[in-house]
Design a protein that fits this description.
Layout (H helix, E strand, L loop, with lengths): L37 H15 L2 H5 L1 H9 L3 E3 L6 H8 L7 H24 L6 H26 L12 H4 L7 H18 L12 H15 L2 H13 L27 E6 L13 H5 L16 E3 L1 H6 L5 H6 E2 L1 E4 L2 E4 L3 H6 L7 E2 L20 E6 H15 L4 H14 L16 H15 L6 H7 L3 H4 L24 H6 L11
Antiparallel strand pairs: 1-3, 2-8, 4-7, 5-6
Helix pairs in contact: 1-5, 1-6, 3-4, 5-6, 6-8, 8-9, 9-10, 9-15, 10-15, 15-16, 15-17
């Protein structure tokens, strides 16, 4: 359960440009005189994490965008908002409402983190006292920028609280390489000062910074450093209190995941919300329309796996049963996915639906699941093992160590199936191992908002969006354009210093 106090440092305007600069910004918290103790630093840092559970970010907009752009989830309800459909079929324009929703929200996270970092300078405490708290803000800032740079490339990079609105409205973009360097620096500070463990996995510990460094390096293609950081986490498994959850299903049970050793950093929805603050939409967006089986009032069938995800996923893999619902209940009768629509799913579709965010989301879950107590794992230990395997294969192909990391993940996937499927990995060539570990990430992390980033960093679009892909051909996908999102047209109009637009938009 979260231990945060929320202080939302709402800037009240787009920090990258605003047509209402003459208005008094509402809620702008100046650090002057406020920061006196480490508790004040904590309050400001908490605001950055508070923004992460807003509907604009992981509640709905960013999370759904990432899910739809991958090759495993497609629109199930064709009447849903066109701004969602555009991401599924790669017809996104520079005024897309999904991007518009979370662009400012992410910069509000950054603004809150910047306030905490700047305010810490005014707190007269020893580094050993205040830096472990300030490190949370450094982690939050790195986390926010890591999402932005992967989506937009060159972006405005801001490290100070906004005081000069005129200067802020004329800011230019920072090259992506420099943004990555700053992300690494923030995570290194966090890794140095965060404690080995925290009272909850929703508060970043040293393991979170350590693991994200591994993922950042992997994304950059710096495989030696990616391996070194992932190996550092693995070597400190006991110190960091990490391990694989024995039962894969328990990772997605809100009553059990809080006590699990596998989550490294998560966003904790606590079943309470203030409007869209803290409200979780994934059960609604991914759940089966009119389904009665979980007492949620059914979902909306918006993000639904393609049928080929179900067809190609071997049924001996325990993760398939955990990840997918193949039956629904309509008017008290259990029906198979082949007749979902005919059985009462209305605007639904005859395909298995995502089960990870509907089965056990807490006793307070109401309104199609929006009152969820789900813990969304931004990073978990299984991913660290797979990062180590992928990176080591690039530097030392044929390594039994790399094989061992994958086999450890696969051993759990065999849970209760009475066979050796998925089989242990052994003797693969470097190319075949690379293909295998990316496939392993696809199934292990299915519907956990990772797949699009894997497709983009490995430039797999031409392959996965072809006729042979899980969703079939996506003719609108353009490899010269679609690995990046468009910068918002409103932002470009207000601040020409953000030009040029990303290619193809």
């Amino acid at each position: 359960m979260k231990t945060y106090k929320y202080l939302f440092l709402l800037v009240g305007l787009s920090i990258l440009g605003c047509s209402d600069l003459e208005e008094e910004p509402i809620g702008l918290l100046a650090p002057d005189g406020f920061f006196k103790t480490t508790n004040d630093i904590q309050t400001a840092a908490n605001a950055a994490f508070g923004h992460m559970t807003h509907e604009d970010f992981w509640g709905r907009k960013m999370s759904l965008t990432l899910m739809l752009r991958g090759d495993m989830v497609a629109i199930g309800d064709p009447t849903t908002s066109s701004r969602r459909i555009d991401h599924d079929v790669f017809t996104v324009q520079a005024d897309n409402g999904m991007i518009d929703g979370y662009w400012l929200r992410v910069y509000q996270m950054i603004a809150a983190a910047n306030q905490a970092i700047a305010g810490a300078e005014d707190v007269g405490a020893a580094d050993e006292i205040k830096n472990p708290v300030t490190a949370q803000a450094y982690f939050a800032r790195a986390f926010a920028y890591f999402h932005l740079v992967r989506q937009f490339g060159d972006i405005p990079y801001i490290t100070e609280p906004v005081k000069d609105l005129a200067a802020a409205s004329a800011i230019s973009k920072t090259p992506a390489a420099e943004v990555y360097a700053n992300i690494i620096a923030d995570l290194q500070f966090a890794k140095t000062w965060l404690p080995n463990t925290q009272v909850a996995r929703s508060i970043p510990a040293k393991s979170a910074a350590h693991s994200y460094l591994a993922l950042v390096y992997l994304t950059m293609g710096d495989f030696p450093n990616a391996y070194a950081e992932a190996k550092g986490v693995i070597d400190n498994e006991g110190t960091y209190n990490l391990g694989l959850e024995p039962d894969f299903q328990d990772l997605f049970d809100s009553s059990k995941s809080n006590s699990s050793k596998e989550p490294i950093f998560l966003l904790d929805f606590i079943g309470a919300s203030n409007g869209d603050d803290g409200r979780d939409y994934q059960a609604a967006l991914t759940g089966l329309r009119d389904d009665e089986q979980y007492g949620l009032g059914g979902g909306w069938s918006v993000g639904v796996p393609s049928l080929e995800v179900y067809n190609r996923w071997d049924g001996r893999d325990y993760r398939k049963a955990v990840s997918l619902d193949t039956t629904g209940v309509f008017n008290g009768v259990t029906q198979p996915y082949t007749v979902f629509k005919e059985s009462g799913a209305g605007r639904g579709v005859n395909r298995p639906h995502i089960a990870k965010y509907t089965r056990a989301i807490g006793t307070t879950a109401t309104g199609n699941g929006r009152g969820s107590e789900t813990n969304y794992m931004m990073m978990r230990y299984a991913e660290v093992l797979l990062i180590a395997a992928e990176a080591l294969n690039e530097t030392s192909p044929g390594s039994s160590e790399a094989e061992g990391y994958v086999n450890r993940v696969r051993a759990r996937a065999r849970s209760g199936n009475g066979s050796m499927f998925p089989a242990d990995v052994s003797g693969l060539s470097q190319d075949d191992f690379r293909t295998m570990v990316l496939e392993e990430r696809k199934w292990e992390l299915a519907f956990e908002f990772k797949r699009w980033y894997d497709i983009a960093r490995r430039r797999m679009g031409a392959q996965v969006f072809s006729d042979s892909g899980l969703e079939g051909a996506k003719p609108n996908f353009d490899a010269t354009r679609d690995y990046l999102f468009p910068l918002l047209s409103d932002e470009l109009a207000r601040n020409p210093n953000l030009l040029p637009q990303n290619p193809g938009y």
